[in-house]
Specification:
The longest helix has 24 residues. The chain has 3 domains: 88 residues, no CATH class; 224 residues, no CATH class; 235 residues, Methylmalonyl-CoA mutase (TIM Barrel), CATH 3.20.20.240. It is globular and about 105 Å long. Helix content is 53%, strand content 9%. By secondary structure, the protein is an alpha/beta fold. A hairpin with a 5-residue loop joins strand 3 and strand 4. The N and C termini lie far apart (81 Å).
Length: 614
């Protein structure tokens, strides 16, 4: 080519560039521009962002003891625009679609993701444990475990099969009086207080008691401050304030109960109706800070599922709730932000990316299938370390397992975390073991140097590969469920339960054969340990007869006080159920005069008892 032809060649080259650029989607250009904008933003010393119209300023660097400047967000060093685009579509910076790295730009600096888990004896006993666990924390993040009597919707009773279970392995709650004692001393409407309740079958009744307790607290506060009763209008304002500000989660995941945990009490159809009624009531009354359901994979994993199955079944259940709520005419953006998730973290490699994969799948479906807004696209989840990985042999090793699992959850940007106590393999944890479990989180969050950085998983070859592998496996499992008629169709044939059982048997076989090494259990065993002798001398935590009798006395006092009003309240509740009314709206009144057991029996008459498909 001669020099005289060079201008023409340059013009052709420019035209070719323009032609290629014209074929590039505008969104692609925007994404690449966003990459460079975000990178410049994180290179500064401070990040400025907004949540619910509030401005937050957070430092983007920390100093180690060696005076090294540690970035909170490590930035990718990608030059090629194509690779930048691919990274933004698959990863992106935390707080940005598809939220693989996290749903918020940075972690909260004023609050650890720690939950205080308790449940023992009567409401007063658990209240004392909550106060002990939360005494050193400005944020009160209370997580409540209920006894088997409560979980199955019964009242405490002298019947031998009930009496022995009152207040054991959880707290006994059967009335509004109990609920008020349980959370006494905690301002349920304070912005630094949130409450999680691990209950499913009777969740609507327990939630109605909880919301009434929050309202009563605010009414009492008004009376104390003004030395008078509120007027009708003032009472309505107080009630609305309480419902708008109460924070927390109730589990209420009935699909998971059928598949893995076995504490269903009502028919699935009736239980779904009540879940929908709760969500509709929350929408109508602007309850925005309380999650009406915690879609739970934890109990699926505890029943034996591997991490991929846990994640796939849990997300599938979540999408089933979405479809059901949409079928009732609710707008996606009115309820999707109020859905939360609950996962287990075990020792398997896939647990490293369980949050990353969950966030990405959920965000993509919410954006492109359901056309949900940014809030709807953000999957928020709680992690609890694996109870199944706790062993009674060499029990002290359990804290090591829990530490690794907690570290994994924090690296993956979980929104809250509960670390199990080492002795939960045998009994309800002691105050000492719970303190040690909390210390695990504190040491990881405050002492562990790499925790200064908030995206340690991004850029890792193995993490990237695991994320893609687990995502693909989950999507394949979705196809298997779809082939069986969706989640409810698969439940009719016992597909989910069968899969969980097969995976549980596989794990147990490897554990007993030694093919899956567990230190202190099937390898590196203590030759001097006498586990039979240790079991004989182990003190198990059980509710005392005095605690059980106190519950019976409190229940009798509640029933005697409300005997003139309870029958009519139950009839109104049954009528609401039969006439397709909102049962939760009626439950808000019913729980004021009726106990848990009487409400359960009344709802059995109109909604039917749960029967497993065979």
């Amino acid at each position: 080519m001669g020099l005289d032809e060079l201008p023409q060649a340059v013009d052709k080259f420019k035209k070719a560039i323009d032609d290629a650029a014209s074929k590039v989607d505008t969104e692609t250009d925007t994404i690449i521009d966003d990459y460079n904008t975000c990178k410049k933003m994180y290179e500064k010393d401070e990040l400025v962002y907004h949540v619910r119209d509030k401005e937050f300023r957070l430092p983007l660097f920390s100093r180690s003891l060696s005076h090294t400047k540690i970035p909170k967000i490590s930035l990718p060093q990608i030059k090629d625009p194509g690779e930048q685009y691919q990274w933004m579509r698959k990863e992106n910076f935390a707080g940005n679609f598809p939220y693989t790295a996290g749903v918020f730009p940075l972690k909260r600096a004023d609050e650890d993701p720690t939950r205080m888990f308790a449940g023992e004896g009567g409401p007063g006993d658990t209240n004392k444990r909550f106060k002990l666990l939360s005494s050193n924390y400005p944020a009160k993040r209370l997580s409540t475990a209920f006894d088997a009597v409560t979980l199955f919707g019964y009242d405490p009773d002298t019947r031998p099969d009930i009496y022995g279970k009152i207040g054991t392995s959880g707290v006994s709650i059967c009335s509004l009086d109990d609920m008020k004692v349980l959370y006494d001393g905690f301002d349920l409407c304070a912005p630094n207080t949130s409450v999680s309740m691990t209950i499913n079958g009777p969740a609507p009744m327990m939630l109605a008691m909880f919301v009434n307790t929050a309202i009563t607290q605010q009414m009492d506060k008004f009376k104390d401050e003004n030395d008078r009763e509120p007027t009708k209008d003032e009472a309505a304002e107080i009630k609305q304030f309480a419902m708008s500000n109460v924070r927390g989660t109730v589990q209420a995941d009935i699909l998971k109960e059928d598949q893995g945990q076995n504490s269903c009490i009502f028919s699935i159809e009736f239980a779904l109706k009540m879940m929908g009624d709760i969500q509709q009531y929350f929408i109508d009354n602007q309850v925005r800070n309380f999650y009406s359901v915690s879609i739970s994979g934890y109990h699926i994993a505890e029943a034996g599922a591997n991490p991929i199955t846990q994640l796939a079944l849990t997300l599938a259940n979540g999408f089933t709730y979405v479809e059901y709520y949409l079928s009732r005419g609710m707008d996606i953006n009115s309820f999707a932000p109020s859905l939360s998730f609950f996962f287990s973290n075990g020792m398997d490699p896939e647990y490293t990316v369980i949050g990353r994969v969950a966030r990405r799948i959920w965000a993509i479906a919410m954006k492109y299938k359901y056309e949900g807004n940014d809030k709807s696209q953000k999957l928020k989840y709680h992690i609890q370390t694996s109870g199944r990985s706790l062993h009674s042999q060499d029990i002290q090793f359990n804290d090591i397992r829990t530490t690794l699992q907690g570290l994994c959850a924090i690296y993956d940007n979980c929104n809250s975390l509960h670390t199990n106590a080492f002795d939960e393999a045998i009994t309800t944890p002691s105050a000492e073991s719970v303190r040690r479990a909390l210390a695990i989180q504190l040491i990881v969050n405050r002492e562990w140097g790499l925790a200064m950085n908030e995206n340690p998983l991004q850029g890792s070859f193995i993490v990237d590969e695991l994320t893609d592998l687990v995502e693909e496996a989950v999507l394949i499992e979705f196809d298997r469920i779809t082939e069986r008629g969706g989640v409810l169709g698969a439940m009719e044939t016992g597909y989910q339960r069968g899969k969980i059982q097969e995976e549980s048997m596989y794990y147990e076989h490897l554990k007993h054969s030694g093919g899956y090494p567990i230190i202190g259990v099937n390898t590196f065993e203590d030759p001097d340990a006498d586990y039979a002798d240790m079991a004989n001398h182990l003190e198990l935590a059980r509710a005392s007869d005095d605690q059980k009798d106190a519950q019976l006395a409190r229940l009798k006092a509640f029933n005697d006080r409300n005997q003139d009003d309870s029958k009519e309240a139950l009839e109104k509740l049954k009528l609401a159920a039969l006439n397709d009314g909102n049962m939760f709206e009626e439950l808000m009144e019913t729980v004021k005069v009726c106990s848990l057991g009487t409400i359960t029996q009344a709802l059995y008459e109109v909604g039917g008892k749960y029967r497993r498909n065979m």
